[in-house]
Amino acid sequence: MQAQTHSPTGIFGNQIRYVVPLFQRPYVWSEGEQWAPLWEDVCSVADAVLQAPAPMGYGGPTVAPHFLGAIVLEQQATLAGYIAVRHVIDGQQRLTTLQILLDAVQEVVEAHGRSVDAQALHSMVTNNPAVTQAPEETFKVWPTSRDQQVFRLVMDNDQQVPPELAENAIAQAHRFFRTKTLEWSGVATEPEQAAERLGALAQTLAHHLRMVVIDLEPGDNAQVIFETLNHRGTPLLAADLIKNYLFQVATAQNADLEKLYAQFWAQFDNEYWRAPVAQGRLYRPRIDVFLNYWLTVKLLKEVATDRIFVEFRDLVRREQSPVAEIMNELAEAASIYESLDKLPESSVPARFHYRVVKALDSAAVTPFLLWLLRWNQDALRISERDRALNAVESWIVRRTLCRLTNQGVNRVVVELLRTLVRSGSPSNAGALTEEFLGAQTADSRLWPDDEWFIRSLSEEPLYKMLTRGRLRMIIEALEDDVRSEKSEAGRCPRNLTVEHVMPQEWKAHWDDGRDLIEAAQRDQLVQTLGNLTLLTGKLNSSVSNGPWTMVDASGNVLEDVGKRAALLRHSTLKLNAYLIVDHPKKWTDDDIRSRGLDMATRATEIWSRPGGLEQNAPLVSPRIVTLAGADAGGEPVPSPVVQHTGRYRALWDWLQRQHLDLVTVSFEDVEEVLNFKLPASARNYPAFWIGREGGGIRGAIADAGWRAAGVNVVDEHVTFVRGQADF
Predict the structure, then answer these.
(1) Distance CA 714, CA 614 (A)
(2) How far is Cα 182 from Cα 99, in angstroms, rounded to an integer?
(3) Is 372 in contact with 389 (CB distance < 8 Å)?
(4) Residue 557 gets which letter from DSSP?
């Protein structure tokens, strides 16, 4: 390759076309990241040109040039005509931006500056029409397919950009540079100086900017150079690298590139696919997330996000298939992925997508969903497909509500896909999925049975344990279950407000003279499922914290509207209708427990577990005791205590205030007590917690009269036992 430094005049001064191949990504530069910094740099140079002393003799003022970066070009054979053509292998974003900047300034100079400056700029953005053979040949730069229409419009001073294209990045860039040129030149504020300032700006753009132009020679591998410049450092999407690679392979296979692009890839070059979406705690472009899922299904293994391109490239090399087949398979899978938010609301796949992928934030199951949806009804009956989805939904919901980790879901999904693929046919996907999940016995994979599920769902303070989205989904599912097919309202509305029936601040109107221990027990009870419902709007605090009826627990008649009447007025839910009808006069602790047990029992039918599986409810409840629950009421049980002043004193103090002899907490709960993060060794080595010797956290636990009886670094929880108690 050959590298030389050129000014914009040297790059655009001749009759030449720089064509961005269709396999390149569309224009994506933005104001904050690129346009504004570039404009500031150009203005700095233009100010220097204005302030430079007049030259002696020939030439312009001596001003240090500004470096814009590098572009990589590949010369193309010109069969006929007078205009040379080069493909832009790298640097198309800055080259396109420079053309937009030149044209925007040229438009302002033509209207408010000197004609000689306008003509000089015009010669750098258009070729001589007399030597062109097609309309697009007049443009010095020709972008990729998606951007050609708007580029043609903004580069023509006589054309207007229609509203539907006004938000395109190219249209925005041209508008930005034109506005900034008008402001900087002072056309409106200092018109007598505008021509001089515009002349300095024209000189800057023509002569005082520099680019390194790298021309590839015959035999240079453009694909390798592209990967080297982009994949190893700059923020190209994995999809951009894949697109480039596919069309390079298509070129080698003598495929029709325009046809391949229009038929299979054009759909990916829009804002929907490049928009950021959540994947775990990070946000990544939707197309890269999709490609990750597609590769998981294709390769039947987990694919790290930083290896998407490498895994895809290696797959293409191994299969040696026509590119058209691979792109067709990608396009079909993309159509399924894009349809996930548009599935019929009453369908099982739509319900699964909402409950599992969205509400429970378990996007790791998406490859499994895509695999099921790819089959037609001849290969996979709808009933069998739905059976498979129901099994996975039940497995994840039960594990979530039993406070079991879902960190290994991606590995389970991959193993499940392998099982389904190796069966040779998707026809028994439902039965195989139930069998696979039912056979899991490890704590990180087991499918909790009904006893465990009911206990967790009815007794745990779900309002404190779950995010609002997850809790709302659980109650929505219970509401859907009690609605008949003849219900006028159909399915339960989404995004309702979670409301306590007996308020959290119950002491004002619900206090019946209970002691501290009983009060603490009620504090825990009001957070359980039996006391929760959904409303169409949030109640004001006076109603929300009010009594059940117009008469409070002491028999006082109140003027405020009772909670029962407010539920009646603000809700059309069946759950609330039963609540109001069944409890006309009062709502008690026993009512909460009874309703919670009923709701939990019905939940076992919504998220059923196949019969015949081994029971796995632990002898000791696996409940992760929340801090509020562990601190509840009463006097602490005496235990030998030694004063502790170390870093972990907060845990030492917290353990002394517990009223149970066994407490199981998550590592996150411990961090909440300590008010700082645990070291990495806490999550990797049980020995960090266990033992009575030494300082650190072990010393704090021992000094408080407790011991760590069990540590699960996979599920990230620890069980503390008081003194020598046996469990």
Answers:
(1) 23
(2) 18
(3) yes
(4) B
Q: Give the integer Cα–Cα distance in Å for 549 and 574.
A: 20
DSSP state of 529: G
Closest-CA residue to 295 (of 304, 287, 303, 306): 303
Q: What radius of gyration do the chain's Cα atoms show?
A: 34
The number of residues making up the chain comes to 727
CA 69/CA 91 separation, integer angstroms: 8
Cα 407 to Cα 280: distance, rounded to the nearest angstrom: 10
- The stretches in the chain having pLDDT less than 70 are 1, 54-61, 77-81, 218-236, 280-281, 484-489, 538-543, 551-561, 616-643, 659, 691-695, 724-727
DSSP per position, 630-665 = HT-SSPPPP-------STTHHHHHHHHT--SSEEEE
State the pTM of this model: 0.66
Kindly tell me the sign of the dihedral angle through the C-alpha atoms of 29, 33, 34, 40: positive
Please say whether the beta carbons of 178 and 108 come within 8 A.
yes
105-121 tens-digit pLDDT: 999 999 999 999 999 99
3-class secondary-structure state, position 210: strand
Q: Token pair of 113, please?
A: 């500056």
- Tokens describing residue 510: 């619900």
C-alpha 32, offset from chain centre: 22
The whole-number pLDDT of residue 687 equals 78
